[in-house]
């Protein structure tokens, strides 16, 4: 519910920005544009290649995890079938062995997920940079002052001539 509200608020903010900008545009001839960066990234061939590579990498990790889980299940089954024949010392040793394996499996799952996330970020970074450069080039060639991302309402290009920081600093005596 909160996510839906946040999405609606972002859309409302984008609409307000675009309406305000269109009013300004009609008076000052400021050129605006928007793009859905998610859609752009999803249609870039590099994204499909990256997804395939990432899935292949994840399958390798999944194979390791499945082998660990099979080993765990085998040890649990073996313990359950032979528990009555074990001495207390052997039982304790087997329980510790099973618990340690369970702990290793959980740690592996967490590490694997973190590694996949890091790999995805590293692989996605050059694709995002390529898209960003293309957006910047289109903005400069088309004389766009602002370009908004329709996905989240963020400004992804702003002409530096619109930066009022120097004016605000002067106003504050900084």
- The secondary structure category is mainly alpha
Low-pLDDT sequence parts: none
The proportion of residues forming helix, as a percent range, comes to: over 70%
Number of strands: 3
Order of helices and strands: HEHHHEEH
Report on the biggest sheet: 3 strands, mixed
Q: What order do the strands of the largest sheet run in, or round the barrel if closed?
A: 1-2-3
How much of the sequence lies in strands comes to 5-15%
Number of helices: 5
Question: What global shape is seen?
Answer: elongated
**Mean pLDDT rating:** 87
Report the end-to-end length measured between terminal Cα atoms. Answer: 44 Å
Kindly describe this structure.
The protein is mainly alpha-helical. 77% of the residues lie in helices and 7% in strands. It is built from 5 helices and 3 strands. The chain has a 3-stranded mixed beta sheet with strand order 1-2-3, sandwiched between helices. The model has no long low-confidence stretch (mean pLDDT 87).
Distinctive features:
three-stranded mixed β-sheet; 3 strands; single chain; 5 helices; 174 residues; elongated; mainly alpha
Brief overview, please?
The protein is mainly alpha-helical and about 170 residues long. The protein contains five helices and three strands.
List the helices and strands and how they pair.
Elements: H1 2-28, E1 32-35, H2 37-43, H3 45-82, H4 88-141, E2 146-149, E3 155-158, H5 165-172
Parallel strand pairs: 1-2
Antiparallel strand pairs: 2-3
Helix pairs in contact: 3-4
